[in-house]
Amino acid sequence: MPAGKKGMNNRMKTFAITDIGQKRSINQDSVYTSELPVGNLPNLFIVADGMGGHQAGDVASKYTVEQVVKRIREDTEQSPVKLLRRAIEKANEGLIIMAKGDEKLLGMGTTIVAATVVDNCMYVANVGDSRLYVINEGITQITRDHSLVEEMVRTGAIQRSEARFHPKKNIITRAIGVKENIMIDFFDVKLKPGDTILLCSDGLTNMVDDEDIRILMAQQVDIAGKAEKLIETANQNGGKDNITVVVIEPFSEEVKAC
Question: 31: which strand partners?
């Protein structure tokens, strides 16, 4: 397992790790974490899961993460949602232009889930089926998958219990780099002491169900141990895709009011 990235400031603890899994020949996931300010954001966490033939998925996810970070650093906007929106939209535009200029990259795209914590408020942006959870006594998926199977669940065509093993579970309905007018979902969440945040690619959630994720994390005291145990279990369960995990413990000090 590759070494993860551990971070800590006087407010939060974080650990990020990505793994190629058991079946893939290349890791098309990209991850970025900063517990320190990025432009006008106090911190920033991103997971992107690329798609496309050859190394196109790798190119898509890496480019998107790099561009989002770059745009946020350069933007003078104060609103976290506007910062995330502008950066993701610019990354989407750039990825489309890049694909048009190289036939080997045609059809590439990537998911993205990005988050920032401002005092006890978390702002989340999402395109695709990479996820963000808040975990405490239970586990709550904050993001909503942009996938064919999720649409089937919402319309009642299949039950939630059928979704994880459905043959079409990997078909996503939104991605960065596919359409010029990208639709981004935004969420804001009020956090409380004891909450743990998890960002991950579907290489984890296709191999480990939500309740098992909660139990596995509860069994580990150290934040690195939580992330590494999730990777280990996903691989033990088949490791059919790349697996990326970011674990955030946002409160190591008393929180301020939202």
Answer: 47
**Interacting residues of 171 by C-beta distance below 8 A, sequence separation 6+:** 147, 148, 149
**Unique residue bearing structure tokens 């890791």:** 27
55: which 2 tokens? 């190394």
The pTM (predicted TM-score) of the whole model is 0.91
For 47, counting Cβ atoms within 10 Å of its Cβ (0-12 exposed, 13-18 middle, 19+ buried), the class is: buried
Helix (H) or strand (E) holding 112: strand 112-118
Q: Compute how many other C-beta atoms are within 10 angstroms of the C-beta atom of residue 97.
A: 10
What's the confidence (pLDDT) of residue 257? 47
Name every residue whose Cβ is closer than 8 Å to that of residue 175 and which is 6 or more positions away in sequence: 51, 109, 110, 111, 127, 128, 146
**pLDDT at position 1, please?**
47
Residues 23/239, Cβ–Cβ less than 8 Å:
yes
Kindly report, residue by residue over 142-189, the tens digit of the pLDDT: 999 987 666 666 666 666 666 666 666 667 789 999 999 999 999 999
| DSSP of 190-238 | E--TT-EEEEE-HHHHTTS-HHHHHHHHHT--SHHHHHHHHHHHHHHTT
Query: What gap in Å lies between CA 196 and CA 248, rounded to an integer?
Result: 6
Burial (Cβ within 10 Å: 0-12, 13-18, ≥19) of residue 25: exposed
Instruction: For 95-113, write each residue's pLDDT tens digit.
Output: 999 999 888 888 899 999 9
Rounded CA-CA distance 108/187 in Å is 26
- Domains in the chain (CATH in brackets) are 5-249 (3.60.40.10)
DSSP state of 41: B
Task: Look at the block and give the residue holding tokens 């906007």.
Answer: 77
| Other residues' Cβ atoms within 10 Å of the Cβ of residue 7 | 17
